[in-house]
């Protein structure tokens, strides 16, 4: 049985479904979730940011979707990112997405947020903190990078 990738999606990936620049890849990723090729990992923070999840999020079958809830460990790690100046307090929710993904051992976090999340300098700093605290290194990519290319299979 093939192991399915667990992919944490932040709000930008969902919003990307409606953005001309990102719609093609965001929608393709959601199709892979719906078809069971990958597991969508969504958090209570994502739902809070959206207030109510769009219909296409609810269309992902439960067996291909996982929900994460913020807890004390999440807040501790997000605070470390801020305390060590990887990201400012103003973007605490972005730090929380990183912490949720790290603590819950997702395979990859995907985002279209190139300023605070999918940014090599920041990724190295997030992972330095993760490693120093005994967490695994977190893969952070944009949705285009995690799509299955059927021609390569």
Describe this structure in words.
The protein has 153 residues and is α/β, with parallel strands linked by helices. It has a single domain (5-148), classed as 5'-nuclease (Rossmann fold, 3-Layer(aba) Sandwich). Helices cover 43% and strands 13% of the residues. It contains seven helices and five strands, in the order E-H-H-E-H-H-E-H-H-E-H-E. The protein has helices spanning 11-16, 23-34, 44-50, 55-58, 72-83, 92-103, 120-132; strands at residues 5-9, 38-43, 65-68, 108-110, 140-141. Strands 3-2-1-4-5 form a five-stranded parallel beta sheet, sandwiched between helices. Strand 4, helix 7 (120-132) and strand 5 form a beta-alpha-beta unit. Helix 5 packs across helix 6. It is globular. The chain starts with a strand and ends in a 12-residue tail after the last strand. The model has no long low-confidence stretch (mean pLDDT 91).
Concise overview:
Helix 5 crosses helix 6.
């Amino acid at each position: 049985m093939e192991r399915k990738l667990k992919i944490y999606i932040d709000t930008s990936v969902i919003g990307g479904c409606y953005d001309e620049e990102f719609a093609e890849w965001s929608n393709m990723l959601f199709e892979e979730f719906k078809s069971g090729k990958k597991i969508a990992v969504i958090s209570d923070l994502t739902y809070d940011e959206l207030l109510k999840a769009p219909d296409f999020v609810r269309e992902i079958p439960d067996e291909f979707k996982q929900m994460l809830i913020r807890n004390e460990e999440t807040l501790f790690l997000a605070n470390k990112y801020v305390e060590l100046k990887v990201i400012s307090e103003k973007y605490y929710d972005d730090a929380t997405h990183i912490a949720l993904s790290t603590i819950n051992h997702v395979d990859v976090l995907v985002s279209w947020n190139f300023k605070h999340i999918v940014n090599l300098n920041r990724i190295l700093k997030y992972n330095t903190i993760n490693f120093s605290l005994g967490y695994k290194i977190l893969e952070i990519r944009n949705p285009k990078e995690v799509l299955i290319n059927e021609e390569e299979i």
